[in-house]
Prior knowledge:
By secondary structure, the protein is of the alpha/beta class. The protein has 15 helices and 15 strands. A seven-stranded mixed beta sheet has the order 4-10-9-8-7-5-6, with helices on both faces. A four-stranded antiparallel beta sheet has the order 11-12-15-14. A two-stranded parallel ribbon has the order 1-13. Helix 7 (183-193) links the parallel strand 7 (169-172) and strand 8. D-serine (DSN) binds at residues 34, 125, 175, 202.
Amino acid sequence: MSFRYSYMKRDTQIFNIINKELDRQRSGIELIASENFTSMQVMEAMGSCLTNKYAEGLPSKRYYGGCEFVDEAENLAIDRVKRLFGAAWANVQPHSGAQANAAVMLAVIKPGDTILGFDLSHGGHLTHGSSVNFSGKLYKPTFYGVEKDSGRIDMNKVEDIATKEQPKLIICGASAYSRDWDYERFRNIADKVGAILLADISHPAGLIASGFLNDPLPHCHIITSTTHKTLRGPRGGVIMMGQDFDNPFGLKNPKGEIRKMSAILDSGVFPGTQGGPLEHVIAAKAVGFGEALDDEFKAYSKSVITNAKAMANGFVNRGYQIISGGTDNHLMLIDLRSKEITGKKAEHTLGLADITVNKNMVPFDDKSPFVTSGMRIGTPAITTRGMKAEHMETIVNWIDQLLSDPDNQDLINSTRNDVNNFMKDFPLYEEKMEVV
Ligand code: DSN
């Protein structure tokens, strides 16, 4: 197997840019919690002729001819993701996690309805009600957050807020929360106030599929996810349900029967929010889901968590404050205020040494989202590179040295050399590549 870059010889401008990015990925330490490295076969499926095909609709119910093979690919992706999560129904067409959330919200609630999500500044996601996103513009957003002393969500407070606000939709799930979720309690609260419960598992999906975190499918009405984070497939989204149910709004189909929620969600994706599905990406999703069904993926997920715990211990031992004091999953959110460096400066300094992280708001932050007091760190990508718990100490040590002396150019240069040499032991996409 090889990259088909030889076909790009005519456009050396973009080929050279892609090659520079490949070098960056190979030689640096990737700690962005939402990133990962797909397999070569996932990338090859994405780069296939399926990109040429229009297939609006669903398998066997398309608005275009010639869909027999993309139907097979899409059915395979649906079957595999249902098997992976034990889902009764899935739609694999959302282009991203944000698109999946948009499709669900536009399908199941009305503009002006109240929604209850996890506060973005406490670790939530833009699409869970942020004022700069459609979810905060179209609906009336209300939020729960973490407690100042524990850094954890207090479920009694979630219940109090839900009882007061009476949301139509409750969203659980986050982008920067290192603890597991009590989906069962969320469902009790949703039932009490008559809300639909949506779990956005974009971040921990791979760890849930592998059985290392709580399972939302028996408890949540609807589940959305990305496919490219801990799940390690292509960039994209998916919507699932543990079981289908009659829509609670009394909506009927042309035969006068109550429509199933699956039909409402399917139409929320197309024609509700998307046009032609990306069948090349859907084929790559099928590949990724197939890989995640393998026992090897379970071992990978286990190492992701072991590495994250080892890394969190390394930071705590050096006096860093991790929100909630540690991690159950693949990431940690570090409050840098005790180290007197902003998230922006930390991200920049580490970047100069080829260590990639992202600055992140911490709960009760006193700085803007462009500066921030924290950084988010995750282990999915470095675990794919083959790193084990013993390597975490080396990485934490480099980060600590750099953040303790961020303007020391000699230290930055020598650390970058050390990082680049270290990464040679963890090869990425070593298959032959043609160079123009
Ligand atoms: N989910 C965000 C992240 O975690 O990086 C991107 O939307």
